[in-house]
């Protein structure tokens, strides 16, 4: 991403978000994990070792998804068809082997999640955050489950992005869950002072 020489560099937090935009070359496979549809993607200008599983909600390639689903549906009808010649059977067997390779591919989501920018989430679609519903660890990265005002479908967003884009909501989320240990020992110490 080129910058004008006249502009001043932004803060370190902004630099973390200014990353290269990645383009999906093709969709290789589909799965459902934890009730979330994910696609195994080949990224343009990257080797196959950089292929990753990504949630459908994070993708902006409806044409590729539609093409993949049409091909997948066609293959499933061929499987159910009683008249299959040997060539089709051989192709299908190769496809199944390839599918197994994709499913057993090492999960590199931590490295690849750093590729994602704020624009890849509701922030990029102009959505306003309604509430942070929860937090979880996904492949070693803290993620917030965010409910957007514009949609009923919540979305997992890396905390590093939410911390920058919605700091007050993050603080509110933590404050709502803050608990104080209220023991007799603590009250005795306070009363002695």
TrEMBL record:
Residues in Chromo domain copies: 22-80, 127-185
UniProt biased composition (Polar residues): 78-88
One GO cellular component, as annotated: heterochromatin
Subcellular location: Nucleus
CDD domains (UniProt xref): CD_HP1_like, CSD
Protein's organism: Didymodactylos carnosus
Short name of one Pfam family: Chromo
Keyword Transcription regulation listed: yes
PROSITE patterns assigned: CHROMO_1, CHROMO_2
Superkingdom classification of source: Eukaryota
Region described as Disordered: 72-117
Keywords, sorted A to Z: Nucleus, Repeat, Transcription, Transcription regulation
Name assigned to this protein: Heterochromatin protein 1
